[in-house]
Structure formats: structure tokens, C-alpha cells
């Protein structure tokens, strides 16, 4: 173990838990072996996203066995991975936040690489797997999401993922954020552009299956685009302008043909032009509709999560006072 003077000040490890009853104990035990060599003070925050399995009882047992280092939070219902992660970030007490999945694909033993990169002066460091552990179609959906998010938010493409280390003060950038649709990476980009990444070995998932299907990844991309960027609106405006020019060109063509031949032949041609323009209009209305949905979600003031119960030593100390 390093001398205490050589350790980083403090860190909070945040793990959203969903159907993790069979994996979270092993992950916590591995973290408790790695963290003392990295930080003088640390805590592990386990956020149960209302799992249907026995995750809550398992993580409560972990808290009982490790009262000084493990904190547990139980959400009122299933809100989603990013919502649960946001809950943990807001509950963090230490200077550095570490987020990771509960499925053992993110090895705690790789944390020294991320922390070492953060010490170079970066605000956020992502762990990029050297080899994608999922099936080709799942990897394709993941890459699509990362490409879109990276382009929109100005984050390098390969630096996005759930295994990340960042400085806790960045949460001040989204302290007042209230929306049921939460994605952590755009929120971090609100506070900094100082990102980096390191390549790590990720393990294959041995227990359970990923909750992210290709369809969910595409939906996530759409929500990121319309929830954190105006790029689709600009695209719709540009598309409308281009088709206005196209329509003007068609008008000139029709006038030329009319004056030269006396009439404009080709009903299929006119019908196809009308169909194209109608399709563009409906597409543009769809984009506007997505933005109206995001505005409705924000205006309805639905919280990103509701805490049913939390257990930690600080809470117990306050109860004893």
C-alpha cells in the first residue's frame, strides 16, 4: 500500500444497480481491495434502480458489512441507468467521482490508469475498451450513439462510456437539472471540454444480459439529439431551404416546357414531386414534435428520480444524535 501522502485525496465510486444481485458483491469486494491503494478517503455508493431481483437486500448486506465505506440508495421505481447514476453523483461527498456498471465488465483493477490520466490535469477521463465485448449489432448501435454524442457535444468519439472518472465539482453545471430524460455525458460537457481517455481491457459479461438493445440505443441517440442540442432543428431548416431551391428549379423547368411545348406532360412526375415535398414536411414536423416532447417533459417538472430509502453511516450517526 502507498504512503498516505502519495494517495489521491478522496473519491466516490457510483454504481447503478439493476438485476445485479449475483455480481455486485464480487464487484464491491474487488473495489475494496483496489481503492485503499489509490485514495486516502473513499466511499462506494450503490444505487438500486428498483431491481426486480434481490439486489436491494444484497447491497444492504454489503452496507452492514462495510458501514464506513459503503452507502446504499433505493429508488422508488425504475428510472434508468443514467438517472440512477445522477442520483449517486449528487449524493457523492468526495472530490473525485468514479462511475461504473454493476455487471463486472468494468474491472476495478483498471482504475489506476484512469486516475493517473486525471492527474495530468483533465476534468473527465473515460475508459475505452481495447476490444468491444458485445455482439456486432450491439457494438454498431453503441458506436452510432457515441458518434452522435461526440459530434454534438464536442467530445472525442471514442471517449464516451459508463466507465469514467471526473472531478465532482462538474456537477455544479447541472445542479438544477430536472428532467425525466437523463444522459450523464452531455451534462458533463456543460461543465468542461477538458476530456481524455485511456484504453483498458474490459471483461465479457458472464452473468445476465445487457439491458440495452439496438432499438434502445437508437432511441437514446434521438433523445440526446433533441434533448441536448439544436442540431436537428438546424438540419430541418437547411433541408427546407434546399428543397425550396429544388422546388424553384422544378418551377423553372415547368415554365420552360410549357412555353416550348405548350403543356407540361407527365402526371407521375408531378405526383412524385408532391410526394417528396409532403415527405419533407412530415419529416420536419416530426423533428419539431420531438422538441415539443422534450419541452413538455421539462415543463411537467417530473423529477429524474425519487429516493425510497437510503442507508449509510452518516444517516445512522444523525439518528443516534
Shape: elongated
CATH superfamily annotation of the largest domain? Spore Coat Polysaccharide Biosynthesis Protein SpsA, Chain A
Uncertain runs with pLDDT below 50, 5 residues or more? none
Number of domains: 2
**Widest beta sheet: strand line-up:** 7-5-6-4-1-2-3-8
Distance between the termini: 35 Å
Helical content stands at 40-55%
Task: Note down, in words, how this protein is organized.
The protein is α/β, with parallel strands linked by helices and 321 residues long. It has 2 domains: 7-213 and 303-320, Alpha-Beta Complex (Spore Coat Polysaccharide Biosynthesis Protein SpsA, Chain A); 231-299. It is built from 10 helices and 8 strands. It has helices spanning 24-34, 55-65, 81-91, 111-118, 136-153, 184-191, 214-228, 231-261, 267-299, 313-320; strands at 8-17, 39-48, 70-75, 96-99, 124-129, 164-167, 195-200, 307-311. An 8-stranded mixed β-sheet has the order 7-5-6-4-1-2-3-8, with helices on both faces. Strand 2, helix 2 (55-65) and strand 3 (70-75) form a beta-alpha-beta unit. Helix 5 (136-153) runs parallel beside helix 7. The longest helix has 33 residues, at 267-299. The chain starts with 7 loop residues before the first strand and ends with a helix. The model has no long low-confidence stretch (mean pLDDT 80).
Amino acid at each position: 500500500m502507498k504512503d498516505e501522502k502519495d494517495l489521491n485525496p478522496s473519491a466516490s465510486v457510483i454504481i447503478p444497480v439493476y438485476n445485479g444481485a449475483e455480481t455486485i458483491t464480487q464487484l464491491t469486494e474487488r473495489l475494496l481491495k483496489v481503492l485503499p491503494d489509490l485514495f486516502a478517503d473513499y466511499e462506494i455508493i450503490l444505487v438500486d434502480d428498483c431491481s426486480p431481483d434481490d439486489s436491494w437486500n444484497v447491497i444492504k448486506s454489503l452496507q452492514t458489512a462495510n458501514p464506513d465505506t459503503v452507502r446504499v440508495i433505493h429508488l422508488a421505481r425504475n428510472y434508468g441507468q443514467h438517472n440512477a447514476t445522477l442520483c449517486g453523483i449528487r449524493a457523492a461527498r468526495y472530490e473525485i467521482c468514479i462511475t461504473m456498471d454493476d455487471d463486472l465488465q468494468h474491472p476495478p483493477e483498471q482504475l489506476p490508469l484512469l486516475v493517473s490520466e486525471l492527474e495530468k490535469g483533465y476534468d473527465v477521463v473515460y475508459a475505452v475498451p481495447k476490444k468491444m465485448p458485445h455482439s456486432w449489432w450491439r457494438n454498431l448501435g453503441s458506436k452510432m450513439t457515441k458518434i452522435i454524442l461526440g459530434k454534438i457535444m464536442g467530445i472525442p468519439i471514442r471517449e464516451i462510456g459508463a466507465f469514467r472518472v471526473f472531478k465532482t465539482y462538474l456537477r455544479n453545471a447541472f445542479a438544477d437539472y430536472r428532467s425525466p430524460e437523463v444522459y450523464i455525458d452531455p451534462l458533463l460537457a456543460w461543465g468542461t471540454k477538458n476530456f481524455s481517455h485511456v484504453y483498458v481491457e474490459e471483461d465479457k459479461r458472464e452473468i445476465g444480459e445487457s439491458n440495452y438493445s439496438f432499438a434502445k440505443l437508437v432511441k437514446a441517440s434521438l433523445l440526446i439529439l433533441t434533448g441536448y442540442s439544436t442540431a436537428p432543428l438546424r438540419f430541418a431548416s437547411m433541408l427546407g431551404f434546399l428543397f425550396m431551391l429544388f422546388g424553384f428549379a422544378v418551377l423553372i423547368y415547368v415554365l420552360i416546357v410549357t412555353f416550348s411545348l405548350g403543356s407540361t406532360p407527365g402526371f407521375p412526375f408531378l405526383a412524385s414531386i408532391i410526394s417528396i415535398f409532403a415527405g419533407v414536411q412530415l419529416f420536419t414536423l416530426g423533428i419539431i414534435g420531438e422538441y415539443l416532447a422534450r419541452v413538455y417533459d421539462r415543463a411537467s417538472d417530473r423529477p429524474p428520480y425519487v429516493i425510497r430509502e437510503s442507508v449509510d453511516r452518516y444517516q445512522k450517526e444523525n439518528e443516534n444524535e
